[in-house]
Amino acid sequence: MRIAFLFATWLLSFGALAAPGEVATLDRSTWPEQLDSPTLFDVASRAEILMFARVLLASESLDEPSLAQRLGLRTINLEAVNNLRQRLWQRLLSNYSFAQRSCDQDASFCFLVEDMDTLRQQAAKFQLSDDSYYIKWAEPSRLFHARYLDEQLRKAALFPQSSSEVDRFGDHERNGATMNDRLFLLTFDSAANATPDNTAWVAEYLRKAKMSGTFFVLGKDIQARLNERSVASLQATYSMQCIGVQGWEFRSHSHWLDWQDSVRRSVERVKGKLPENYMPLFRPPDGQRRGDAESFFRAQGLQVALWDIDAQDGAGKLQPDQSAQRVLTLMLLWRHGVINFNIKQDGVKTAMPWLITQTAQSGIGWEDCQDGFR
Questions:
Q1: Which residue positions does the secretion signal occupy (predicted)?
Q2: Alpha carbon 159 to chain centroid distance?
Q3: Are the C-beta atoms of 219 and 253 separated by less than 8 Å?
Q4: Judgement on whether residues 54 and 177 belong to the same structural domain of the protein
Q5: Which of 42, 50, 304, 349 is 20 to 30 A from 249, alpha carbon to alpha carbon?
């Protein structure tokens, strides 16, 4: 009865959280341990998985009108929402199975989870005592995951009328879901603004760290650089890195009449001038693309390259430290995936190095850009 009462009380608080659209971030200093070993990465991963599972389970108690109100929408695509929930549960179960392999080395947050039923049971009763070593983390983490879940549910509720990275339209689209455990790929989006452009700085940082990333570029930006400098200079900037395209301009490719020409022109420019770096990948700006475009992309030999870990580092959204801590929390939750940074925000020069430093001893790996979407 006490557990049921506490859970019911918590459900009420769940419905009174932040307004729709508030971006989730978590102060990682609330977590009392450094991620300086694979085992401690797993401990933190188990904790984030259980907390998100708890929030996800709670959201299922909301009926359709209540969920729509919570997400700030008049109507929702409930089928898409339920499909997302199912995928989230499957990934949580898989991730927890990986994360509990080190339970013989550190039993923190280790519970009997053998299947989906036992995962849901553990999520329903997951809570920390007031004297827990991790108590300062508990409430901030719950708020983070509730807000993050809202972000995902809202995108699903609007899909496919408003397309995003929350779901795929077919096998020609890739995200980080099938990557191996503990492997992450760094990707960098362009944006509508011309400056600042931190490509040269980020590419050089990655080369010095013996790492690589995939830079999704705009055709017009590449043309502007070619107007100012030589092809050799541009090739030197992207040396040892990969390049995909985002179209000629940073604008929605779901309603733009010239979207096909935008993709073709960009591919022609990048493939012609930077053939050693070019990857046959299209990253839709803001994830917006048409659901009936599979035949076009296949004819062009392109894959649509989505992501599943978003830094939310666009202008005015999060500060660099908040963005970095958001990404790290999602790395612990999803345990593998494609990370999306904005190359035209100066915060990337702070957030990305911090992230790499924080995970240097955690047992994760950074996927080579040549293999990331295969």
A1: 1-18
A2: 17
A3: no
A4: no
A5: 349
To the nearest 10°, report the CA torsion of 39, 45, 50, 55: 170
Long-range contacts of 128-131 (CB under 8 A, 24+ apart): none
Q: How many helices (H) and strands (E) does the chain have?
A: 13, 9
The distance from CA 255 to its chain's CA centroid, rounded to whole angstroms, is 24
In a domain, 147, yes or no: yes
Q: Residue 372 corresponds to which tokens in the numbers above?
A: 């990331």
pTM of the model: 0.93
Please report which confidence band the pLDDT of residue 20 belongs to, taking 50, 70 and 90 as the band edges: low
- Which residues, in sequence order, are CB contacts of 283 under 8 Å at separation 6+? 187, 189, 216, 244, 245, 246, 304, 305, 306
Same domain, 313 and 350: yes
CA distance 369 to 374: 10
Is 316 a residue whose pLDDT tops 90? no
Are 106 and 71 found together in one domain? yes
Domain ranges, residue 61:
2-158
Q: Which residues have C-beta within 8 Å of that of residue 159, sequence separation ≥ 6?
A: 77, 80, 166, 167
Close Cβ partners of 40 (under 8 Å, ≥ 6 residues apart): 33, 34, 106, 362
What's the token pair of residue 83? 């499909």
Q: Quickly list DSSP for 234-254.
A: HHHHTTT-EEEE--SSSS-BS
If asked whether residues 74 and 214 sit together in one domain, one would say no
Q: Which residues contact 121 (CB under 8 A, 6 or more apart)?
A: none
**Separation CA 157–CA 151 (nearest Å):** 10
Q: State whether 222 and 349 are in the same domain.
A: yes
Q: Which residues pair with 215 in a beta bridge?
A: 188, 243
Residues 281-299: pLDDT tens digits?
999 999 999 999 999 999 9
